[in-house]
Design a protein that fits this description.
Blueprint (H helix, E strand, L loop, with lengths): L1 H12 L34 E2 H7 L5 E8 L12 E5 L25 H6 L1 E5 L23 E11 L5 E10 L1
Parallel strand pairs: 1-2, 4-6
Antiparallel strand pairs: 2-3, 2-5, 3-4, 5-6
């Protein structure tokens, strides 16, 4: 019994091991952002409406187009610097008398054929050629139905009517 009491006394009086200090968090890359230089201070001249530019666009062309953000209930792609631009000739649902559409920027009053001919996908890409991993909504004041003039390079023109432009400059009215 004395041996047991001696062991307990020794253990109780023994210095306690200090727990290891917590590791600092690993450094994270800064959140991507759309460069301020993307947003133009002056409206580019000779912009063509989306529908007209789309009819003549070829991959690699530099184009200047004008339109409004919309075409979908959510015209901005989440976590990607991408959005849809609609020909300025189309009326948003809210511009039709008596229309109470909850999402007037989706242009749901237009036919699918009209929308196909009058929409373009705009993306802001990084050095790797991929869309920045940040939403474009709010950047430079952009929101649904904002009127824009976009300067960029045609990335894709598909047989099904898709037009994708890598924006190099955006003027928000």
């Amino acid at each position: 019994m004395l041996a047991f009491a001696l062991v307990v006394a020794l253990v109780a009086g023994a210095p306690q091991a200090t727990p290891p200090a917590p590791k600092p968090p690993a450094p994270t890359a800064p959140a991507p952002a759309i460069p301020d230089s993307t947003f133009l201070k002056e409206k580019p001249k000779d912009a063509k409406p989306v529908k007209e530019a789309k009819a003549a666009a070829k991959v690699g062309d530099t184009v200047t187009i004008t339109g409004r953000i919309g075409g979908r209930k959510e015209p901005f792609v989440k976590n990607r610097a991408m959005f849809f631009l609609v020909d300025p000739s189309l009326k948003a649902c809210s511009e039709n008398p008596g229309d109470t559409c909850k999402f007037p920027w989706d242009f749901c009053c237009e036919t699918p054929e009209t929308m196909k001919a009058c929409m373009a996908t705009i993306q802001i890409v990084g050095a790797d050629g991929k869309p920045l991993k940040v939403t474009a909504e709010g950047a430079g004041g952009m929101k649904p139905l904002s009127r824009l003039t976009v300067v960029g390079k045609v990335r894709e023109v598909s047989k099904d009517g898709a037009l994708v432009i890598d924006a190099t400059g955006i003027f928000v009215e």
